[in-house]
Amino acid sequence: MNRTPLAEVAAVPPQGAGALTVAVDGVEVGLYRVGERIVAWRNVCPHGAAPVCRGTVDGTRLTSAVYEYEYGRDQEILQCPWHGWEFDLLSGEHLAEGSAARLRRHPIAVIDGVVYDDAPVPARMRLRVTERVRAADDIVVLRLASPDGAALPAWMPGTHLEVSLPSGLVRHYSLCGDPADRSSYRIAVLRERSGRGGSAELFAESKAGLELDVRALRNRFRLREAKHSLLIAGGIGITPLLPMAASLHRRRRSFELVYTGRDLASMALADEAAALPNARLVESSLQGRPDLRALLAEAPEGTAVYACGPAGMIAQVRALAAAEGDRIQVFTEAFEGGEPEPSGHGPARPLAVELARSGATVRVEAGETVLHAVRNLVPSAPSSCEQGWCGTCETRVLDGEPDHRDRVLTEGERESGDTMMICVSRARSERLVLDL
Ligand code: FES
């Protein structure tokens, strides 16, 4: 679940219309649609000299970017424009008889409409703070880069960085820079005076030259294809929404960004947000809070609503969206330290959890979490916030009915019951079977 997202499946051109080229670790990878499948080839021919191009054989005539001539097969190919070598689009094999040459496949996984990089990624990276800018009263913006200047893994708007602080605390930050810039990541850190201390530490201790351990990138808050997108940011919640808005603007998609904060002095990245078309900045001390009810009610049918901000704002957006039914879809991300999601399912009961990979069963007492009980047998079970908002502990459910108490999953994901956050969620059934 720590894979890096590369692209929406919807962004891959239709079959026969070429590739979507993405950069992975400094190498170009072409994503092609073949029927229902997406295939990924490194965009370089086997002798390493030229990017491959796509051709089609229509009957006996081959047309590619460089050649058009009579041919004897009926299939789609990739072609090296230098040598003219032709490769099967699905298998990557060189079509010349007896040749062992083949294109290099790049491993991908297609999950829930997104193409993910499935190559093993380093579990940790050590990045250096190269820039620290005071972006608002209590917010600093940090730029992080590899000490050796290496290109950083690709990311999509909504991606989190998990940062291990010098004190050992672990905190998550949304990337808020330009996904096309692989030389550095940008995060914004809010000094939370009533928080658990991690962000206050990073706010105070960070300076150019500080090196930090950064763990795998996560994205639980990705952009979906929709007729219209409504982005609602409260305070530091602008961080994931700014690259989303920039991406929608770049792709000429219909969107509106509403960014609210106490006043401009407290609103980080306000100038970048204001520079986008269809962006509205609301200073609540002067104008009052935006009317969320009206915003959602007036959103055109088919709108995808993304809200990121304080827990109270998120709860309000979710409640108002429920009244809108299927007319709009809502995706939210709350901050660390918000109130736990009310379960609405009564007090916790003991339950039995079967770990499918070993067949062992653990009993979860009423007063302990599933994560805690599971760790007796699987000490490596991942977690971070342990409050149900970061998504690190997301685990596949193979049987049983989860009682979701997190603030990560959408309503649709909750209803499907495919996964659960085992740090806070429990079960409505007596027993759960988890993919652990
Ligand atoms: S550890 Fe963060 S949601 Fe479970």
UniProtKB/TrEMBL annotation:
Keywords, sorted A to Z: 2Fe-2S, Flavoprotein, Iron, Iron-sulfur, Metal-binding, Oxidoreductase
Residue ranges annotated for the Rieske domain, each copy included: 6-117
Superkingdom classification of source: Bacteria
Matching PROSITE patterns: 2FE2S_FER_1, 2FE2S_FER_2, FAD_FR, RIESKE
InterPro entries attached to this UniProt entry: 2Fe-2S_ferredoxin-like_sf, 2Fe-2S_ferredoxin-type, 2Fe2S_fd_BS, Beta-grasp_dom_sf, FAD-bd_FR_type, FNR_nucleotide-bd, MRET, Riboflavin_synthase-like_b-brl
Residue stretches making up the FAD-binding FR-type domain: 122-224
2Fe-2S ferredoxin-type domain ranges (all copies): 351-436
A Pfam family matched in the record: Fer2
Signal sequence bounds: none
Protein name as it appears in the record: 2Fe-2S iron-sulfur cluster-binding protein
UniProt organism field: Lysobacter korlensis
